[in-house]
């Protein structure tokens, strides 16, 4: 799916990729539109034919034949448009579905770093913007760009019947007018890009503030946010006005050209008629076809500018969304192999790592994680504990060294099998805005209701039955309708259901009441049983139950051993525990 990134800078090719997926329906639309335009322009020739027949004392048969021809052309013209409209409602709508689905797949393939650097609202807004822009461009092309182009060609063909020099002159003028408009439309592209960029920023800011409403309220920042939003919208309005005013200037230029050319064509036709070189029907034909050509170029001018605006939005959106995935599957990646009767062993082997643009977090970091044991990572803030857990899950690639699970380099195993082997319970629990049942089942989608309930019971989620709709209760955005302790137990139940042999835990620092803490301790105890556990543990009660403690500072191991041993020795671990005990005593 990563090959989608090849289209990041090629918006037209990106659009054609989806058009090619539905070749038959797009070809049928094209054929219907070509037919409709041909009938529409031919009907003007039909009018000339009828006028000539009527003014030439022709027989009744010839008059009714001219009438039938004209009526058939008008009917075909209208019906073919409707046929094209009907097919577009299937094909163009289908394209917006295919496109969003692939963009979503690509977006979800990005590493966590990609998301941490961007506002979620900007990203989701860009998926919608891309789909809307693709729909608009397809519609504009079929209804507003193609018909005037075809109408111009057909009209010039018919004009040649009356006067070849007039047809030649109109061809040259139409070509010049179109070229001029194309050039002017292209010159306005940076303005349209600027507007697209500003519009995406507004969406991103909106989503960011709405997603953080509790924070905004707590800091009494509602008015501040109102003013900030007004400023962001103000910048978008300015960019939008500039873009639209540019379009209006282009349209004005075209309007002036149209007036001048219409006068010239009409006068030319009348002179031809005065000299007896054209019939009355020819004058009617020249008038209607001349108008067709001039109106077509005007419609084209308007449409082209709209197309450039939508293409600018599309280009801006795919430029961000279709960036290459930072973490790619190794070409020879194989699934992680481990024997279920034996817990896996993990190892950091001479690892060097820094965040992009950040300072070095690890340099020659080596650590063996004992299979089936509980290893606690402790150390001051910024020492690299969370980064170590992230690297083990391959959220980032290493600069140097290897991370091994049962001797297999995680850079060479499939990401899916790695994720299956690891359960991660983060500090900041994420829940989807779905029911409790669905949230727990996220750990193993095929689990039965009975299995989900068993996992919830094991994780001491006794509170679920007391909720208004029990397991069907919707948890609210990111689980806001549950307490912190309840969210943690749901996350533990989810991890229990996933039943991975490796458990990574970033214990929450926020303090809970004793009862909730005891329940979480019991739930965690069940989760950790018989698995290889690496945990960033903050509570002394959790640390005491560990087989081994690794004390990190500046990405280096300062102490390593069973907690009781470390407590017997003077060192950073004992100092940390003593200061924590003193803090707890003071608080009590
Ligand atoms: N996404 C990121 N981009 C850039 N730098 C980062 C990122 N995440 C962490 N860092 C930096 O990497 C270093 C290690 O951070 P890490 O979060 O691993 O520490 P930690 O020991 O888990 O700290 P804490 O106990 O406060 O969570 C810090 O200097 C931090 O500023």
Task: Characterise the protein shown here.
The protein is of the alpha/beta class and 588 residues long. The protein folds into 2 domains: 2-321, ABC transporter type 1, transmembrane domain (ABC transporter transmembrane region fold); 346-429 and 493-587, P-loop containing nucleotide triphosphate hydrolases (Rossmann fold, 3-Layer(aba) Sandwich). The chain is built from 19 helices and 10 strands. A 6-stranded mixed sheet has the order 6-7-8-3-9-10, sandwiched between helices. Strand 4 (400-405) and strand 5 form a beta hairpin. The longest helix has 53 residues, at 222-274. It is elongated. The two termini are 56 Å apart. Adenosine-5'-triphosphate is lined by residues 113, 116, 355, 358, 361, 379, 381-387. Adenosine-5'-triphosphate binds next to helix 4 and helix 11.
Give structural attributes.
588 residues, alpha/beta, ABC transporter transmembrane region fold, Rossmann fold, 2 domains, 10% strand, elongated, binds adenosine-5'-triphosphate
User: Would you list the SSEs in sequence order as H and E?
Assistant: HHHHHHHHHHEEEHEEHEHHHEHEHEEHH
Low-confidence stretches: none
Beta-strand content = 5-15%
- Characterize the largest beta sheet: strand count, sense, and whether it forms a barrel: 6 strands, mixed
**CATH-assigned fold name of the largest domain:** ABC transporter transmembrane region fold
E-strand count? 10
Q: What's the architecture of the largest domain in CATH terms?
A: Up-down Bundle
Our count of helices gives 19
Highest CATH level, the class of the largest domain: Mainly Alpha
Shape: elongated
Helix and strand composition category: alpha/beta
Please give the alpha-carbon distance between the first and last residues. Answer: 56 Å
Mean pLDDT: 85
Query: What is the domain tally?
Result: 2
CATH superfamily of the largest domain: ABC transporter type 1, transmembrane domain
Question: What ligand species are in this complex?
Answer: adenosine-5'-triphosphate
Report strand order across the widest sheet. Answer: 6-7-8-3-9-10
């Amino acid at each position: 799916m990563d090959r989608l990134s090849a289209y990041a800078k090629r918006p037209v090719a990106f659009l054609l990729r989806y058009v090619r997926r539905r070749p038959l329906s797009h070809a049928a639309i094209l054929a219907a539109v070509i037919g409709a335009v041909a009938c529409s322009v031919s009907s003007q020739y039909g009018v000339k034919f009828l006028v000539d027949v009527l003014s030439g004392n022709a027989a009744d048969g010839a008059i009714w034949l001219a009438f039938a021809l004209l009526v058939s052309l008008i009917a075909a013209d209208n019906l073919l448009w409707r046929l094209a409209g009907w097919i577009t409602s299937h094909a163009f709508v289908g394209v917006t579905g295919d496109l969003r689905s692939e963009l979503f797949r690509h977006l979800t393939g990005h590493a966590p770093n990609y998301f941490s650097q961007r506002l979620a609202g900007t990203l989701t807004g860009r998926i919608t913007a891309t789909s809307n822009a693709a729909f608009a461009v397809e519609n504009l092309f079929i209804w507003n760009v193609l018909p005037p182009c075809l109408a111009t060609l057909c009209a010039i063909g018919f004009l040649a019947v009356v006067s070849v020099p007039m047809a030649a002159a109109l061809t040259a003028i139409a070509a010049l007018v179109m070229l001029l408009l194309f050039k002017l439309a292209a010159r306005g592209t940076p303005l349209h890009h600027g507007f697209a960029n500003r519009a995406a920023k507004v969406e991103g800011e909106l989503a960011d503030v709405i997603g953080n409403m509790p924070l905004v309220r707590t800091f009494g920042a509602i008015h501040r946010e109102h003013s900030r939003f007004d400023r962001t919208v103000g910048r978008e309005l300015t960019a939008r006005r500039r873009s639209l005013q540019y379009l209006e200037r282009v349209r004005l230029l075209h309007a002036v050209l149209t007036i001048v050319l219409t006068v010239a064509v009409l006068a030319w036709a009348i002179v031809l008629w005065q000299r007896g070189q054209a019939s009355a029907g020819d004058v009617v034909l020249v008038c209607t076809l001349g108008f067709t050509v001039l109106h077509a170029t005007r419609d084209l001018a308007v449409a082209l500018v709209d197309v450039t605006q939508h293409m600018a939005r599309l280009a801006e959106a795919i430029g961000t969304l279709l960036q290459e995935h930072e973490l790619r599957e190794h070409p020879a990646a194989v699934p992680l192999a481990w024997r279920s009767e034996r817990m896996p062993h993990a190892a950091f082997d001479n690892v060097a790592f820094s965040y992009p643009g950040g300072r070095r977090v690890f340099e020659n970091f080596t650590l063996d994680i004992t299979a089936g044991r509980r290893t606690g990572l402790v150390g001051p803030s910024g020492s690299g504990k969370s980064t170590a857990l992230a690297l083990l899950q391959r959220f980032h690639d290493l600069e140097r060294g290897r991370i091994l699970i049962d001797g297999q380099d995680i850079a060479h195993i499939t990401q899916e099998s790695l994720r299956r082997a690891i359960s991660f319970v983060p500090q900041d629990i994420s829940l989807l805005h779905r029911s409790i049942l669905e949230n727990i089942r996220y750990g193993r989608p095929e689990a039965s209701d009975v299995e989900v309930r068993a996992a919830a019971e094991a994780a001491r989620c006794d509170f679920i039955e007391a909720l208004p709709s029990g397991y069907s209760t919707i948890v609210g955005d990111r689980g806001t309708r549950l307490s912190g302790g309840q969210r943690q137990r749901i996350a533990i139940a989810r991890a229990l259901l996933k039943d991975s042999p490796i458990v990574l835990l970033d214990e929450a620092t926020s303090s809970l009441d004793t009862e909730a803490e005891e329940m979480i301790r019991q739930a965690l105890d069940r989760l950790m049983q018989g698995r290889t556990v690496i945990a960033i543990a903050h509570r002394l009660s959790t640390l005491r139950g560990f087989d081994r403690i690794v004390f990190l500072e500046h990405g280096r191991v300062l102490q390593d051993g069973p907690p009781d041993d470390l407590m017997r020795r003077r060192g950073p671990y004992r100092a940390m525990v003593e200061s924590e005990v003193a803090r707890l005593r003071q608080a009590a």
